[in-house]
# Entry
Amino acid sequence: MNPGYAMLFEEVKLGPVMAPNRFYAVPHASGMTEANPRVRAAFRKTKAEGGWGVVSTGAVSTHPSSDDSPLPFARLWDENDIRSHALTTDAIHEHGSLAAIELWHGGAAVMNRTSRIPPYSPSGIPWQATHVGFMGQLRPRIMDKNDIKDVIQWQVDAAKRAQQAGFDIVYIYAGMGYLGYEFLLEEYNVRTDQYGGSVDNRTRFVRELIEATKDAVGETCAIALRISLEELRARKSEHYESQAHEVVSIMADLPDLWDVKMDSSPTDCGASRFKAEGSHEPVIDFVKKVTGKPVVGVGRFTSPDTMVSQIKRGILDFIGGARPSIADPFLPSKIKEGRELEIRECIGCNICISSWHDGVPIRCTQNPTVGEEWRKNWHPQIFEPAESDDQILIIGGGPAGLEAGLTAARRGYQVTIAERSSELGGRLNFEASLPGLNAWARIKDYRLYALKKMDNVSLYTESELSLENILELQHQRVVIATGARWTRALYSSLEIPLGALAGAEVYTPDDIAEGIIPQGKTLVYDFDNYYLGGVLAEHLAKLGSSVEYATPAGHASAWTIMTNEQPYVHQALYALGVAIHTQTLLTGFEQSSVSLANIFTGHTSAIDFNSVVLVGLRLPDNKLYDQNMDAKESVKSAGIKSVERIGDAIAAGALVHAVYSGHQYARNLDKANRTYLRDVPVVSNGPGLAI
Ligand code: ADP
Ligand code: SF4
# Structure
């Protein structure tokens, strides 16, 4: 280990327990609920195994009045839940780490759609009532004093269950719009009793939660307070620098640990496209000056130098990691073993958080094994040895090809990757050069760094392979990873394909990637709806083109609401003067005039544009695969056992799909029995919970 990093491995006392080092896998949504107790135990276990000294659950509801459905959430309501969580604590303890549980009451930020209990709130004010996904018609009830007592009792009961389940650290949650947070903010809390008014009064509910939890389990468990400080820091205080300073001062030494963060998902879990590593620091930098208790915070930290600097400068005691611990559960071990160059760094794409929004267990662009540790027995560092001497020929060196090659090589296969262009990396070579996306190059950097060190790997660039080449090379396994191409297809408002948009001045992202700069006034028309349309508009505007953006969706880059990018996409386009036409269909382009129709009314306007960039449908580049299929006999007599497609060549998707597809191919090589376990809830105590 680099001796400069030794301080990252110091023990830190947390109330009655001792953290073995400063690496803290903080609470984060994983989409894993009581429906998947073994999946989540294996997911958290892997982090402990990889050296995270503390490993936390995500939000765990204390009572049916904290019910986030249809979003996935965990519970600790009864005996079954204790047994279910005990699988996780046992798994974490196996590796000597501490297990933390983020007990949570959602207050007015949940709709209790399943339990049908009116949501709890300090003053009846809903949280983000217009936010899609949280939108609902039931407004929250105003908590009376009995309700306050009840919520505190539910926290206490849940804390006792957590203790029984084996947790070492128990949270009180006062962040991200949830109940504790609502009490802290004057906009949500307009109470006139002792729980509202002054800052001191507004902290009372959170203080009582902490005190009651401490009384209940504080002898054996550390008590952590998770709190959002962004809004409070922006508010004036009479005697302190801000209300955040005041709140932290009032509760300074009450919890055993401060877990400090931002207020909303886009600022807290910012995509790298818009938020740099360590972006929370200006909000949370004061906390350690006010409290004598340890502080954990996050910031997509992947560089050990940055981590050490955070500790040396007195910002944090623990290096909190949500995304870095997902992308590489073995990040701490790699630093400890002097292998920091092998860290699979998070790229900040936020596909992980999109899984929660999708309501499914977590997935990650960089780490294809995430969520599959138990289900498919995929370990991020352990690879089953090759079961044959087959040589693997991979055609195409994009994310899918590189991941397939790396995983097959790690299993011990002899791997050849042939890439047509002068650089390995496929679509990343262009996309990572676009505004804000340079961290995405880590997908290829991580893989190439590993591949180049392996004796059983041959990498070729400027090697476009034909069917003849494939037959000559006589590898037993052929993998077609040739990617996909953007088309000029259009759709009607009923999502019926309309055929291609013709014209010399109609371009696709592939044309822009090849260096074409559309001339004159340019319209980017986007019905792909992920990042590329928005970022290409940004790119062209930055090159000095006059650009407008149109989409049939209600927002620019509409799907990026799933990855926390959408507000910033709009801000970036606005800052560059790119006009945005939403709910708009492109219906024609002739003689420098584009017909744009309102998607609902059909009302059409003709607007002058010289060029159109169409970001719509991508289709696999299947030429080589089809030729192989047509030449089955020659393929067989060349000794080729299989020809398979992976990544965009099988189905065009996001980078996460390509990496996963490549990984899956290599894991399954020569395997007759492909594990795919189905998890079931722990119900040994029978169903039933009286509320
Ligand atoms: P994916 O995301 O599935 O990895 P990419 O489009 O990023 O797909 O990468 C596909 C790669 O395949 C590109 O780098 C492209 O240059 C390469 N490629 C396509 N056809 C051939 C071929 N016949 N021989 C070698 N490389 C090819
Ligand atoms: Fe990082 Fe993207 Fe993986 Fe999330 S999905 S952990 S942001 S690489």
The two ends are 53 Å apart (CA to CA). The chain has three domains: 3-348, 391-483+622-667, 486-619.
